[in-house]
Amino acid sequence: MKTILITGCSSGYGLETARLFLERGWQVIATMRTPREGLLPASDRLRLMALDVTDPRSISAAVRNSGPIDVLVNNAGIGLLGAFEATPMATTREVFETNTFGAMAMTQAFLPGMRLRGTGTIVNVTSSATLAPFPLVAVYTASKTAMEGFTASLAFELQSFGVKAKLVEPGYGPGTRFADNGGERMKGLLPEPYGSYAQGVFASLGQQAQVTRPIDVAQGVWQAANDETGQLRFPAGPDAVALAAAR
Q1: Which of 57, 159, 198, 221 is exposed most, by the fewest CB atoms within 10 A?
Q2: Of these residues, 13, 140, 172, 194, which one is catalytic?
Q3: Residues spanned by the domain of 153
């Protein structure tokens, strides 16, 4: 029976991915900063674990407590929407700490075990914002684009050891907690004249026919985790698939 460890399982993509892998018979280690019972169906194949991907001690504890894993899914992330001009550099660094450096730190921590066993898959969840330019998410896009380059290079670096690196690229998901996860850091990031401009952007998004659901991303992770073809990128959601095809 295979084991998967997923970061950021308190909601959205991570929660749905944990649910899907549980349904399909895997052992699931669902991590989040503050574990909460009741988010997932009770199962003897499920473990909830506290994990902060920005805390080296928390990562070390996760490695010790999880045991060998077959798949690592770096899904934990924070959103940020706002004008770059108005975004403090401290906020930019905060986004990179979770979306980029946190995922890198998790990868570095779990890689030795995978390499020694000669098997394993690392799945990094990025965004369709890396597939086509989108306004008002410059910092967020930069953090995810860095992970795209990192993963593509890592895939080559690890192939001789039997370890795989994959990308899942979710599309626009209005039902996700992107804004909620942005929290207080988004306040004041849309001053005039950007506020008026943003209204038009939001109106356009509201008319978008194709959007991504959490289950689309979960299925994308499933495909990436079980892929044997050497495919690197897995766009998730109809809008992401269309963007990938156009590119």
Answers
A1: 57
A2: 140
A3: 3-246
